[in-house]
Amino acid sequence: MEKREQPRSTLLCPTRGGRASYPNQDRAIAIAKEREADILFLYVSNIQFLGLTALPVVVDIETELEEMGEFMLAMAQERAEKAGVRADILVKSGVFREVLQEVIEERPMITAVVLGSSAKGSGHTTREFVLDLAAQMSRKTGVEFTVMHEGEVIETFRPEEKL
User: Fold this and answer.
1) pLDDT higher than 80, residue 114
2) Hey, which bits of 69-138 come out as E strands?
3) How many CB atoms lie within 10 A of CB 51?
4) Cβ–Cβ < 8 Å for 52, 148
5) Which 3 state secondary structure label does DSSP give 91?
6) Phi and psi dihedrals of 7, rounded to 5?
7) Which has the closest alpha carbon to 64: 82, 97, 91, 35?
8) Are strands 87-93 and 38-45 parallel, antiparallel or unpaired?
9) Which of 59, 40, 163, 45 is nearest to 111 (CA)?
10) Neighbour tally for 59: CB within 10 Å
11) From edge to edge, which strands make up the β-sheet containing 144-149?
C-alpha cells in the first residue's frame, strides 16, 4: 500500500510587497515555520478607480500591476524558502475583502491568515480598519486571523467554537 503525504495546513499572507512589508512577511514566515505549515503569499490589485479610463489603458495597467505583484511575491517566496518554509504565490484582482474570502473558500487547507497593517504610514488603511476586517473575516470564514504591525503581533482573532 502506497503511503500518501498528508496535505499540510497553509498560512495565507496577503501583502503589497516591497521593503515596508518585509517585517510582517518575515513574521508570517516564522509563524508558518513554527506551525510546520506552508505559506501562500497573496497580492490583490484593484483598478476600479480607473472605471472612467479607456479600456486599452485599463488592460495595460492591470497587466502591469499583476506583473509587479508577481515580482514582489517572488521575493517573499524566495525568503520563505531560504527559511525552510514551502511557499507559493497568488496574484488576483478585485475588491480585497471579496478576494480574501474567495481564496479562503477555494483553499480548505488555509487555517490562518496574517494581515499586516501598513508600516510608516505607507498604506491606505488604518490599523483600526485592519483589526475590524480581521475580526469580521474570522467570524465569517471560520479561520484564525492575526494582525501585525511592523512584524509585531497586535491581535489574533479565532473563530468561535461551535457546540
Assistant:
1) yes
2) 87-93, 110-117
3) 7
4) no
5) strand
6) -60, 140
7) 91
8) parallel
9) 40
10) 11
11) 87-93, 38-45, 10-14, 110-117, 144-149, 152-157
How many whole angstroms separate alpha carbon 66 and alpha carbon 43?
8
**Region for 107 from its dihedrals, namely left if φ exceeds 0, alpha if ψ lies in -120 to 50, beta otherwise:** beta
pTM for this model (two decimals): 0.84
Tell me the residue type at 100: L
Q: Show the cell assigned to 91.
A: 496574484
The Cα 161–Cα 120 span in angstroms is: 36
Q: Please answer whether residues 47 and 58 qualify as being in contact, where contact means their C-beta atoms are separated by less than 8 angstroms.
A: yes
Q: List phi, psi (to 5°) of 111.
A: -110, -15
Q: Which sign, positive or negative, has the C-alpha torsion 78, 80, 85, 87?
A: negative
**Which of 16, 48, 19 lies closest to 116 in space, CA to CA?**
16
Q: Is 90 exceeded by the pLDDT of residue 67?
A: no
Q: What is d(CA 52, CA 3) in angstroms, rounded to the nearest whole number?
A: 56
First to last CA, the chain: 37
Residue 148 — very low, low, confident or very high, per pLDDT cuts 50/70/90? very high
75: phi > 0 → left, psi -120 to 50 → alpha, else beta; which? alpha
C-alpha cell at 15: 501583502
